[in-house]
Amino acid sequence: MKTELLIVDKNVDNLDIYPQITQAATFLKENEVVAFPTETVYGLGGNAKSDEAVLKIFEAKGRPSDNPLIIHISKKEQLNEFVKEIPATASILMEKFWPGPLTIIFQKKDGVLSDVATAGLETVAVRMPEHPLALALIDAAGLPIAAPSANRSGRPSPTTAMHVWEDLNGRVSAVVDGGPTGIGVESTVLDCTAEIPQILRPGGVTKEQIEAVIGEVKVDPALTNVQAAPKSPGMKYTHYAPDAPLFLVKGSRDFIQQLIAEKRHEGLKVGVLTTEENSDYYEADVVQVCGQRAQLETVATALYDSLRSFNKTDVDIIYGEMFRNDGVGHAIMNRLLKAAGHKIVEEL
Ligand code: AMP
Ligand code: MG
Asked: Counting ligands in written order, which one lies closest to the CA of residue 118?
């Protein structure tokens, strides 16, 4: 398949009649799949009402079919077509955080959306992205758009069109290039079908921000287990992973440098994932700087590009610093733990 690269300046007026957007929307209406930027990461979109289109998304990504997709809309009114009811808490959150990086789970109306998109569940995950190109494209298509991140399954999510191209060239009809995304980690997934809403995936909107608006929210217990055993076997589900094994290190810079030195002594090429504050400190084969620890938003923005950049080097092993587990740090640590397959080395 030939993949069209459609370059669009997101600051142009009347984006929804911009030729490249019209072309991308035509692909969507014809049940083809198109990658496009959002404020979190690039998404791979398809008509959420069409099994044919949604199957193409799973196929292009190599995504397991039991993992449901988020449905993207450009207007709140679109919800009524496929959602049974909008709980009061959801209404308040939509008012406050839409458009934006908050995905809300609702009870689904039957027979409107593709069951492939929702993996046969009774619920549906929905969000309204805050990116002019995403909104213009969804508007121009006039459809709810199912869109997971536009990476091959298991790899770090794409934050530039180049990342998408590396993974999906030849597998999708078009890539809309609108420049780098901003936030860098995916949306927060919040289940609003329960009495007390529950965070299923930490992301761009923090627990603290949500609680400030609606009071108590729960966190899926599976997310809070950061205390994995040291050097736990890397046999758990890995995601967002660079090619070389990544070990997170709970300990001082000195300890990290000691680990690096040991591996280099064994003849291995060693990478380290660090932040601006510590970058001059390490002696390693590759020192990858990922934002500023003092400003965690910058770490989120740079995270996936940093993980991907190790694949352009010949490192055999990577050590990564850890981050505080609140605010946007919650999403960063969640992604890093998955990228590391929960392998943590702890300083004793
Ligand atoms: P991605 O599309 O890669 O950003 O991932 C979407 C995330 O939303 C995955 O973690 C899905 O498991 C989750 N998700 C989508 N739909 C639902 C749903 N109906 N219930 C619970 N989680 C969902
Ligand atoms: Mg993804």
From this structure: 1
DSSP state of 335: H
Domains of the chain: total: 2
Q: Which atom of ligand 1 is nearest to the CA of 103?
A: 8
Q: Which domain holds residue 307?
A: 246-346
pLDDT digits (tens, 9 = 90+) for 244-253: 999 999 999 9
Residues within the annotated binding site?
Answer: 40, 63, 67, 72, 123, 127, 147, 149, 157, 187, 201, 240
Is residue 229 one of the residues assigned to a domain? no
What size, in residues, is the chain? Answer: 348
Is residue 215 one of the residues assigned to a domain?
Answer: no
- Return the CA Rg of the chain: 20
My answer on whether 14 and 137 are in the same domain is yes
Residues 175 and 285 both lie in one domain: no
Q: Which residues contact 57 (CB under 8 A, 6 or more apart)?
A: 33, 44, 45, 46, 63, 69, 146, 147, 148
Q: Which residues are paired to 105 by β-bridges?
A: 125, 191
Q: Give the position of tokens 């603290």.
A: 208
**Which of 57, 69, 123 maximizes ligand 1 atoms within 8 Å of its Cβ, making it the mutation to test the pocket?**
69
pLDDT band at 225 (very low <50, low <70, confident <90, very high): low
Last residue of a domain, one of 142, 166, 184: 184
